[in-house]
């Protein structure tokens, strides 16, 4: 790594960022995508092997499903974006020592339309 250009290192994305980008590409379509299609969808240069590695990590975490397509594999999200976000929020609340305090901070940061939607959901008993 000592010989690497500092600009190249600055442009590197973390595994979490790449996972988010791959999931976003999958959520943006209603059909399974191959690693090559995902590679083409993601901005910036990204090696095919990197995309394949990220897909394997997401598969191992249960976040994507693999569909056999001849010799190639195509991937689709295991959950839609809203389901995944809700699960991440639930896990974050469960990890913290003060889930009520975290909810209070979260609610005070909502935009007006989000606050209205939350009030409507709570009034209707949806959950």
Please give a structural write-up.
With 127 residues, the chain is mainly alpha-helical. The chain has 2 domains: 6-77, Arc Repressor Mutant, subunit A (Orthogonal Bundle); 81-124. The protein is built from 7 helices and 2 strands, in the order ααααββααα. It has helices at residues 6-11, 15-27, 35-41, 48-60, 81-95, 99-108, 112-124; strands at 64-69, 72-77. The chain has a two-stranded antiparallel ribbon. The protein is elongated and about 45 Å long. The N and C termini lie far apart (49 Å). InterPro entries: BlaI_family, WH-like_DNA-bd_sf, WH_DNA-bd_sf.
Question: What is shown here, in short?
Answer:
InterPro entries: BlaI_family (IPR005650), WH-like_DNA-bd_sf (IPR036388), WH_DNA-bd_sf (IPR036390). With 127 residues, the protein is mainly alpha-helical. The protein has helices at residues 6-11, 15-27, 35-41, 48-60, 81-95, 99-108, 112-124; strands at 64-69, 72-77.
